[in-house]
Amino acid sequence: MSKIFYTKTDEAPALATQSFLPIVKAFSKTANVTIETKDISLAGRIIANFPDFLTPDQQISNDLEELGALVKKPEANIIKLPNISASIPQLKEAISELQGKGYALPDYPDNPGNDKEQEIKSRYDKIKGSAVNPVLREGNSDRRAPRAVKNYAKQNPHTMGAWSPDSKTHVATMQHGDFKGNEKSLTVKDATKIKIELVRNDGTTKVFKEAMPLLAGEIIDATVMNKAALTTFLKEQIKDAKDKGVLFSLHMKATMMKVSDPIIFGHAVEAYFADVFEKHQKTFEELGISANDGLESLFSKLDQLPADKRQEIEGDIEQAIENGPDLAMVNSDKGITNLHVPSDVIIDASMPAMIRNSGKMWNAEGKPQDTKAVIPDSSYADIYSATIDFCKKHGAFDPTTMGTVPNVGLMAQKAEEYGSHDKTFEIDAPGTVKVIDLNTNETVLEHAVEAGDIWRMCQVKDAPIQDWVKLAVSRAKATQWPAVFWLDENRAHDVELIKKVTTYLKGHDTTGLDIKIMSPKEATEYTLKRMKDGKDTISVSGNVLRDYLTDLFPILEVGTSAKMLSIVPLMNGGGLFETGAGGSAPKHVEQFLEEGHLRWDSLGEFLALGVSLDFYGEKNDNPKARILGDALDSATEKFLVNDKSPSRKVMEIDTRGSHFYLALYWAEALASQDKDQELKGVFGKVYQQLSEKEEQIVKELIECQGSPKDIGGYYLPDAQKVSSAMRPSSTLNSILDTI
Ligand SMILES: NC(=O)C1=CN([C@@H]2O[C@H](COP(=O)(O)OP(=O)(O)OC[C@H]3O[C@@H](n4cnc5c(N)ncnc54)[C@H](OP(=O)(O)O)[C@@H]3O)[C@@H](O)[C@H]2O)C=CC1
Ligand SMILES: O=C(O)CCC(=O)C(=O)O
Ligand SMILES: [Mg+2]
Q1: DSSP conformation class of 90
Q2: How far is the CA of 457 from the centre of ligand 2 (A)?
């Protein structure tokens, strides 16, 4: 029998699920829809990958692997909540929490000394970073703000910080020597295998890939980030931030670009603390300190030193901060800077948050200040500089009047940069990296490289491109809005893509549609102007821009990307329904643990479930499931109209209260429909009970707040403790038990 698979993930969404899923299960049971949970949390993935270190009762199935197979089947129907894409410091924290709970897991070997350690490291490296989404996303992405969400934002506008034309905030990006500048690309004619190798100047060779298969029609590109150009650029920016009196902030994606970006982050840490790293190089080496892991990890390793040595280094770090430009802060109360943890500042969320906040980030005093947003690689930096320039010229956007920008994103089958991890290498000695076509033995792409350069190759297969063009045309038809392909004719990879897009568009009837191709900068300017004028424009983009744009526009338009409908129509016919476009909101967990209030907004989950039930009904010829889905959509609209989203403040309705209201409206919609009398009967009673007990339930859901919560862990909290923390209303629980 087919099922809806619901993912168990991490942090705030995982907490929220403990409250929402019992409601979902109770309601869907009435339509014979089975919901099965699959554990893809960071802790779950670690446990599943190390059975040989664990006792039989600790071992669990590899749910991610199972879902990875399911997404290739037509019956797939998965609700995917956001999960942690772990940086190395997070991975180490999770391992240590699990070890403390009796799981005899090996430590993460930073510098593997033998084959066994190397094997352990490679198992962990598959878990680190963005290790879930690329496996599940066997389709392209369709992310948009439903009309009801947009209307809600127009009537209840979120705050938008005013912009001044004199703002000193700006984007700094490399002018040469970066991934964009060095990119080379080609389309593979016939299926083949390639070898990737570094031929060092000393005559030795290192093979990176022995025989990697490529399909006919695949686009490959290779490029390199030159270390010398990067470090020179970073030093200049540090000096310039100091001279201009703006904050220094670094924006990148060390989680998703899990091989390249931690290295780039490390160079920024070393550039800012150049004197410290030079003076204490030997000690840092002895302690196994890697700048790539950030300041927090560095500080924790200093604990191993005698007090006087530790104080000396800490003093030198303080001095460097004193001498350098002000650093943007992640948490000024706790002294956590932008350079503390590589996963604390993630560009898709950090840049829009800054743009919403008058272009300011927080300084060490906890005050907003103009900032230099350093985005080392220039491939996509233009979109943020164009947005900042637009705000300086026209002021902040007005959520009550602005248009909407949905996205059709190319991401299937690890498209583009997001699939580059196993083909990204930090170069150990000068030489030439060659990509050799094994059919012809010809070198098809090559780069001269220096030690420390980051070389990478990306792929995008032809079938996903065809599917992406088709999805773009169908969204353009459904909306009659202009659709813009954000592709740059001056970028090697995009040139190849443009050829395919132009060809595949010819295979569709596009009469009356307005479909354009523009560079990211032009597309930003065109789209922002329309957006300001209240006009809607579809962005059709590659994978990285998909990620950036589906946070940027939603955050400006509706305050958070949590309110997005995020569908992944799987290429083999199934459906993956993501819950919003944002992440796992660690800040929300912090608040919940401190004061028992969870502000996570599950709207994206309501929207995803609505589509999933509908899809289920259609696939399984189950009209009751469709009625549940329709009723859920009506409930979500009423939820928005009545403004029942979680408040940010303690002792007001939080995530749990918002779930109660959704259940109330869902039951009401089912009680008032006439298509299915059985459902009408069941939910008539449920609605009556829920509405009679509204006051009591809300009281129970608010009175439980106001004190610290112990859930028995962070990465693997105690299931019982979480469940009781997230389901504190016995009145609501007992009504759900009657369904
Ligand atoms: N699909 C996925 O699996 C994704 C996973 N991630 C992962 O999530 C983690 C955190 O990433 P980060 O970049 O900090 O981004 P997040 O999206 O988790 O958080 C950024 C901010 O967005 C707001 N926000 C996000 N979701 C919600 C929500 N449902 N309700 C209310 N507000 C929300 C919060 O703002 P405020 O503080 O103002 O409340 C939050 O602090 C990382 O491990 C990252 O890799 C990120 C994106 C997608
Ligand atoms: O997979 C990840 O790490 C993040 C995904 C993401 O941010 C997105 O798809 O918008
Ligand atoms: Mg994103």
Answers
A1: H
A2: 20
Residues 654 and 716 in one domain: yes
Using DSSP's 3-state secondary structure scheme, residue 372 falls into strand
Counting every residue, how long is the chain? Answer: 739
Domain-ending residue, one of 541, 568, 595? 568
Domain that holds residue 267: 252-324
Q: What is the pLDDT of residue 706?
A: 97
Tell me: do 520 and 597 sit in the same domain.
Answer: no
Run of H or E including 649: none
Q: Is the ipTM of this complex over 0.95?
A: yes
- Index of the ligand 1 atom closest to the CA of residue 90: 43
**What's the CA gap between 382 and 376, in Å, rounded?**
12
Q: Are residues 610 and 546 in the same domain?
A: no
The CA distances from residue 166 to 162, 315, 358, 370, 576, in Å, are 12, 36, 11, 10, 45
Ligand 2: centre distance to CA 423 (Å) = 19
Kindly state if the Cβ of 585 falls inside 6 Å of ligand 1.
Answer: yes
Are 565 and 611 in contact, with CB atoms under 8 Å apart?
yes
Residue 256 alpha carbon to ligand 2 centre in Å? 7
Three-state secondary-structure class, residue 43: helix
Decide: 19 in ligand 1 pocket, CB within 6 A. Answer: no
Give the pLDDT confidence of 412-437 residue by residue, as tens digits: 999 999 999 999 999 999 999 999 99
Q: Are residues 590 and 698 in the same domain?
A: yes
* Residues 598, 672 share a domain: yes
Angstrom distance (rounded) from CA 91 to CA 89: 5
**What's the number of domains the chain is made of?**
3
Are 556 and 594 members of one domain? no
Q: Does residue 97 contact residue 43 with C-beta atoms inside 8 Å?
A: yes
Give the Cβ contact number of residue 479 at 10 Å.
Answer: 16
- pTM value is 0.97
Domain membership flag for residue 649: yes
Structure tokens at 579: 């819950």
Residue type present at position 421? H
State the number of CA atoms in the 13 A half-sphere of 593 facing the CB: 13
Q: Is residue 511 part of a domain?
A: yes
Alpha helices in 480-519 (DSSP H): 492-506
Q: How many other CB atoms are there within 10 angstroms of residue 628's CB atom?
A: 30
